[in-house]
Amino acid sequence: MSTSKNKIRTPSYFMKRLKDNGFIVWRIFSNFGKHDPRRWTVLVDPGYSSVFITCFTNKEFMNDIMFELSDGGILFNRNFSIKTDSIEVIIRYLLDRGVNNNPTKSPYYTQRPKYNSEATTK
């Protein structure tokens, strides 16, 4: 029995790990056709670097996974793609190219209200 929980190819895991590293991430689309190698697309650092990341599976080989990073050729060359099973590799590429991972610098940053444990115990 194979489970895809906590794998880089699942958008929820991918987004969580990027958010854990300070990036603002939006899910853009994940309803591609059955025979389309694209699985989902997210937007990292909207309004600042605005990098689209699209996950591909089985594009060249069976069980192959690849990510295409696209920002219109500003930080990443057009059609820039990475074959990896490691989210750390993706994060390193984003940081090395100067993608913002400080959410307070984003125009879409909203501070979450602090959790008040006293209010829930009364």
Question: Any overview of this molecule?
Answer:
The protein is α+β, with helices and mostly antiparallel strands. The chain has one domain. It is 20% helix and 23% strand. The protein has three helices and five strands; from the N terminus they run αβββββαα. The protein has helices at residues 11-20, 87-96, 117-121; strands at 25-29, 38-44, 51-57, 65-70, 80-82. Strands 1-2-3-4-5 form a five-stranded antiparallel β-sheet, covered by helices on one side. Strand 1 (25-29) and strand 2 form a beta hairpin. The protein is globular, with a radius of gyration of 16 Å. 17% of the residues are buried. The mean pLDDT is 87.
- Mass-distribution shape: globular
Biggest sheet layout:
5 strands, antiparallel
Topology order in helix (H) and strand (E) letters: HEEEEEHH
Number of strands: 5
Proportion of beta-strand residues: 15-25%
Helix content: 10-25%
Distance between the termini: 45 Å
> How many helical stretches?
3
Structural class: alpha+beta
Whole-angstrom Rg? 16 Å
Unreliable runs: none
Strand order of the largest sheet: 1-2-3-4-5
> In the residues, how many domains can be counted?
1
Mean pLDDT: 87
